[in-house]
Amino acid sequence: MKSKIDFHMHEYPASHWSIDFAKAGTSIATITVRNKYHFSVILNPTDCQGYRSIIRYINEDKSSISSAFNRIYTLSEQRALNDVAAIMTKIYEKLGVIAQFSQLGNNSHHFNSQSRVIHVGDDEEPSLLHLHMWGRGDPEVEYIPGVPLRGPKPGLMFDLRTKVTPDKRELDTCITTFKNLLGDYIKSSEFIDEFENSIMVSFEETNVKGAQVREKRSDAGFFSSTISPKTCSTDSVSPSSGQPTPKL
């Protein structure tokens, strides 16, 4: 007997974190694949381990952002995500770390053991096509000057739910570093030979067709954690109050 999958139907307000995709203030770039599929690349504002980032599918061409929620994704959309992941893998490698990533969605998945129905998405957490990426290496080494890599030692599992809250100054340093590395890479012969004109990279958060970027605050969404976060700092500086607070 197969379980039924139920995709949640809900209209999310413009202030919701899933619509206001740049609200965390940690954007690295928006990337458009084949002049059609738009993605947001940000540093995770609630976990500094491994210079962790999130690649999220925003929308297709001029469609609404919510049209990408709570549904099965096409082969073309999945391939587009893989292209963006391949690009960001090269950026992590340029730091001198080993890139790893995982395509998840656990926060938006629920299972009813009585009805045997799998529910995808809810009123607070829509299901999104996205993945988490991080670097592995010596946790104590500053692959980005002034910012230790942190995280588990190589060979141990990277636990995505055990988070360490970033220090604001370190977070800003990482954002600048990633932007610079990505900006240089898209000018390289390797990038041009591989992607030609099929990839467009912008460092402006609003450069997405159909996107309504606002500055209202909302819940942390898929940044949330089930474990109380530690603070990531080398000098006891508290994290910026401007970052989303993880749900506990």
UniProtKB/TrEMBL annotation:
Domain LPG0439 HIT-related: 26-165
Pfam families attached to this UniProt entry: HIT-like (PF22088)
InterPro entries named in the record: LPG0439_HIT-like
Lineage top rank: taxon: Bacteria
Region of interest (Disordered), ranges: 223-248
Protein name: LPG0439 HIT-related domain-containing protein
Species in which this protein is naturally found: Legionella longbeachae serogroup 1 (strain NSW150)
Lineage: Bacteria, Pseudomonadati, Pseudomonadota, Gammaproteobacteria, Legionellales
